[in-house]
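<instruction>
Derive C-alpha cells from the sequence
<data>
Labelled lines for chain and fold:
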Amino acid sequence: MSAVLLFVAGLAAVTYLLRLAGVSTAARAGMDGRWSLFTALLPVALLAAVVTVQAAPAGRPAVHLAVAAVVAGVAARRLGFLPAMLLGTAAGALVSLGGF
C-alpha cells in the first residue's frame, strides 16, 4: 500500500470517528450551539485542508481543483455535504477533461 492511500484511509477513519463522537455526545447531553457547530464542521475543515495542499502544487493553483472547490462551496449552501462534493468532483473532472 502506498503512503498516500494510507494517509487518505487514516483521514477517512479520523473523520468518521469525529462525526461519531459528535453524534454520540449530542445524544448523551444537550450541546450548546458552539460545540455542535464545531463537531459538524471539523470533518469539513480536515477535507478542505487536504484539498488546499493539493490545489496549489509548486505555487501555481490547479484550475480544475479551484473550479471544483468553488462549485462545491456554492452547492453546499443549498445542498448537503455529499451532493456538494459530487457536484464539485464532476465540475473539476469536466474542466480537467476540457484541457484547461
Summary: The chain has a mean pLDDT of 75. The radius of gyration is 16 Å. The CA atoms of residues 54 and 90 lie 17 Å apart.
